[in-house]
Every structure is written in structure tokens, then in C-alpha cells.
Write a structure and sequence with these properties.
about 150 residues; alpha+beta; three-stranded antiparallel beta sheet; 1 helix; elongated
Length: about 150
């Protein structure tokens, strides 16, 4: 398609309602009002007839009035929530303190093991040098790898 050619305009077809046929009084059938919904028929542009019932939107149930909640019940509920929050916070705090205490204990034990190993290496090493480390353990002196008590 080039720019000079334009597409044909679209034809919009509106459905045409069918006029009700002439009804004689002999054709009438007594029906309770409101039991059978009205039927609508529409003729489409291609000649087909569509017939159907009108759909009415469902009406929601009326909202029932909720009873009011007393102020005392609200205060009790909020007090319970606050109490449980405080209990949970205290539980977390004590757990944190216990974990911190265990960590500090482990660090002190690790430092004692490392320092004790360092001292043991210094005391029991059989190096040939004359310089030695002096270590005071319960008033006993290890000097140049010999005990002087």
C-alpha cells in the first residue's frame, strides 16, 4: 500500500432490535409476575438473531450492624499484646547475654591455651643458645631451662 492509497473507511453496524410480534389475547398465557424474566432479541448486521435474558447485577447483602467493642476489652487486648512483647524482648535479651558470656568464656580459654602453649614451648625447648626466658610460676623460677626453686 502506498501513501496515496487510503484504506476504505470501516463501516460500523449497530444491532437492530426486533419489534415484538403482534400478540392476540388468545396467545397470552397467565404467568405470575416476576417469575419469568424479559427476553430480548437483537438482529446482527449479518442477519443472525441473538436472543437472551437480561442479566441483572446481583445485589450485595446489606451489611449487618456490628456490635461495638467495649473500651475495657480493647484495653485488655492491647495490654496482653504489650505484655507478650515485653516478655519476648526480655527472652531475647537474656539469650543474647548468655551467648555473649559463652563467647567471652571461650575467648579467655583460647587465650589461656595459646599462652600456655607458648610458655610450654619456651620451657621445654632444647635450643642450644644460652639466653633463656625467665618465667615465674608460683614463685618457682625457670631460668635457662633449669629449675631454680
Amino acid at each position: 500500500m502506498t501513501h496515496s492509497e487510503r484504506p476504505a473507511p470501516l463501516a460500523v453496524h449497530q444491532p437492530t432490535p426486533i419489534a415484538p410480534a403482534a400478540i392476540t389475547p388468545a396467545q397470552l398465557v397467565p404467568v405470575q409476575p416476576g417469575t419469568v424474566p424479559a427476553v430480548a432479541s437483537v438482529v446482527l448486521p449479518d442477519g443472525r438473531v441473538v436472543t437472551g435474558y437480561a442479566i441483572h447485577p446481583a445485589q450485595p447483602e446489606p451489611i449487618a450492624h456490628k456490635p461495638t467493642v467495649s473500651r475495657a476489652a480493647v484495653n485488655v487486648a492491647l495490654g496482653g499484646v504489650g505484655f507478650l512483647s515485653v516478655c519476648g524482648g526480655l527472652l531475647l535479651l537474656t539469650t543474647f547475654v548468655a551467648a555473649l558470656t559463652a563467647l567471652i568464656t571461650q575467648l579467655i580459654t583460647l587465650a589461656a591455651v595459646i599462652f600456655g602453649g607458648f610458655i610450654a614451648v619456651q620451657v621445654f625447648s632444647t635450643t642450644g643458645h644460652k639466653g633463656g626466658t625467665t618465667v615465674h610460676i608460683r614463685k618457682a623460677i625457670f631460668k635457662r631451662n633449669h629449675f631454680h626453686g
